[in-house]
Design a protein that fits this description.
Order of helices and strands: HHHEHEHEHEHEHHHEEHEH
Oligomer: single chain
Strand order of the largest sheet: 2-3-1-4
Radius of gyration: 22 Å
Strand content: 15-25%
Helix content: 25-40%
Number of strands: 8
Bound molecules: protoporphyrin IX containing FE
Distance between the termini: 37 Å
Structural class: alpha+beta
Length: 410
């Protein structure tokens, strides 16, 4: 696609309509029927997904504002001992060039040809810097990158947390993502290597009735409804570092909190549907708030049931997470489900790769999570297993490279 599409409450995106129109055209053309028509439709849809592009260059890195894709993989890298400023600059220059080509659906020099013929498939590649990278480079660490404090019931695995560099890859196809990860990993050789990597997914395009529908997570809830949207009042101030922001190299950037949150699905499954809905504060089928309306009706936190109880209960996740309960704290959530098989105790190793972009994690994720860890009924069904924090610098201009503002200033 030519520009990141905003999801529209209850509406079709323009491109979604165009895509559907062209599919209808394929079905109507000629006397194809039954399986042949279905396979023509499938082929056309596949090509259309492959052709979509999210522009790499721009004021913000594309992965910050792009809508959720079917596949989201995250890799954290650590610098090799002794890697210096010049090597980091070379690496970032190389990664930028490769990302620019791959997101345009073009091979990189010396390409391994893993994804030949697959197109860009909406690929985004978004690079972030950990506090440890800045320390290694001798750069001041902004307050926003202060370590996220521990929360009650955290069960963090440090080996799968933090890192000098963090890269989020998203696309409509898993091979395209795998190819991009392999390409960047290979070109980092000698300078940086993978510290940890995780693989997530969302519903594929075409699975839901309309493109841009809110994704379901592995608890079966519509997840993302209450997200702020680009263009909303206050969106930029909450999510992006403004033109006067400090340090200057972060202007137009954002801070990314990553958490691997395992869902205790076997325990969750024992709750009747009605109770599950109360724990969240929204209906499971439509995503509508329990205070009434449809999916995108604003929460009414004061609404009472006929029995006098609050429609959205005191411990409901949406109440405890909402800006109204957190002095206005607002984050842009990007969730990807993961399902990594079964653990030795028989429980599914499954949950959410939770990602949140914000201007300052101290006023965003940390403030909200401090409340959730204590007061959110959902927290009984979750285990936070890893945590990372990255400064995501602005997008690169057509001739620049990601992080150039930081490196040039050293
Ligand atoms: C696996 C863990 C989690 C699950 C399954 C989950 C699920 C949900 C669901 C189903 C909703 C309602 C639909 C929506 O607005 O997206 C929601 C809303 C929300 N969640 Fe979570 N969530 C999780 C973790 C978190 C964490 C760790 C935070 C932040 C620290 C958070 C912050 C929010 C916010 C800000 C909202 C919107 C509230 C509003 O409507 O104002 N969630 N979540």
């Amino acid at each position: 696609m030519s520009a990141p599409e905003r999801r529209r409450p209850g509406g079709f995106t323009r491109r979604g309509v165009l895509a559907m129109t062209s599919l209808a055209g394929v079905a109507a053309a000629g006397a194809v029927g039954g399986d042949a028509a279905a396979s023509a439709l499938g082929g056309e849809r596949a090509r259309e997904i492959g052709r979509r592009r999210v522009p790499f260059d721009g004021p913000h890195q594309a992965g910050v504002l792009a809508p959720p894709a079917a596949h989201g993989w995250f890799a954290a890298f650590d610098l090799r001992p002794g890697a210096d400023r010049a090597q980091v600059a070379t690496l970032l220059r190389r990664w930028t060039g490769e990302a620019r080509r791959l997101t345009a659906g073009e091979p990189v020099p010396g390409d391994d040809a893993m994804a030949t013929g697959y197109g860009a498939s909406s690929l985004t590649i978004t690079v972030g810097f950990g506090a440890s990278l800045l320390r290694r480079l001798g750069a001041p660490v902004p307050g926003e990158l202060q370590p996220i404090p521990p929360f009650p019931h955290d069960d963090l695995d440090e080996g799968r947390g933090d890192g000098d560099l963090g890269v989020l890859f998203t696309a409509g196809d898993a091979i395209v993502v795998a190819h991009a990860l392999r390409t960047l990993t290979r070109s980092a050789r000698g300078t940086a290597s993978v510290r940890w990597q995780m693989t997530g997914f969302n519903p594929a395009d075409g699975v839901t009735a309309e493109r841009g529908s809110t994704s379901r997570n592995l608890m079966g809830q519509l997840d993302g409804t209450g997200n702020p949207r680009p263009g909303d009042p206050g969106f930029d101030a909450h999510v992006l570092v403004g033109p006067g922001g400090d340090p200057a190299w972060m202007r137009g950037g954002s801070y990314l909190v990553f958490r691997r949150i395992r869902m205790l699905l076997d325990t969750w499954d024992t709750l009747p549907r009605e109770r599950q809905e109360q724990v969240i504060g929204r209906r499971k089928d439509t995503g509508a708030p329990l205070s009434g309306g449809t999916e995108f009706t604003p929460l009414d936190l004061d609404r009472q049931n006929p029995d006098g109880g609050l429609a959205i209960g005191p411990g409901a996740h949406v109440r405890q997470a909402s800006p109204a309960s957190n002095s206005g704290a607002t984050i842009l959530r990007k969730g990807y489900s993961y399902f990594d098989g079964y653990r030795a105790d028989g429980a599914p190793d499954a949950g959410l790769l939770f990602m949140a972009f914000q201007r300052d994690p101290r006023d965003g994720f940390t403030r909200i999570q401090q409340r959730l860890a204590l007061a959110d009924e959902l927290s009984r069904f979750l285990s936070h297993e890893s945590s990372a924090l990255f400064a995501v610098p602005p997008g690169a201009g057509p001739h620049g490279y990601l992080g150039q503002g930081l490196l040039d200033g050293l």
